[in-house]
Amino acid sequence: MTTTTDLMTERLVLRLWSVEEKAAVLAVTAAGNGDGPTASRPAHWADDFPDEGDQVIADGLGQYPGWMGPFGHRQVIERTSGLVIGGIGLFWPPTAGRVEIGYGIVPSCQGRGYATEAVIALTEFAFTLPSVRTVFANVERPNPASIRVLAKSGFRHHRTEGDTLHFDHDRP
């Protein structure tokens, strides 16, 4: 079985969430909701990090231990600036050889191809694991940017249920 810490791409580092990063996101989220004391934002975060999806993942990291492991969720870091600009992850563990991928880039860094670059890298990593035969994602129809990310990353649309489009990427 392959294990790793950081996954590197040309422009990004996909780094496993640390306990400290999880706590910082939760503290900033609580402070922003008026539920806790004022929390300072780490200097290595983009101005609009964390977004709602990152907050959900930080909360889930405590509930789902596999998400904190080497095959779970990662922060997306722009190599040139060193800033955390989003998140990506596998909703570990796989079921029947299938594992879901989720991702998000903060609005200030969207439109640069970062999501596609990160999805390709994490999908390739998932396929190094014998237990993964398919990586899948579900996207809402009103999110054409995410639909383009999946298409550019080699995923194929295989069905639609209401406003949800289902995409698969099978092991090559």
UniProtKB/TrEMBL annotation:
UniProt keyword terms in alphabetical order: Transferase
Keyword Lipid metabolism: no
InterPro entries (alphabetical): Acyl_CoA_acyltransferase, GNAT_dom, N-acetyltransferase
Keyword Electron transport applies: no
Name recorded for this polypeptide: GNAT family N-acetyltransferase
GO molecular function: acyltransferase activity, transferring groups other than amino-acyl groups
Protein origin, superkingdom: Bacteria
Ranges for domain N-acetyltransferase: 12-172
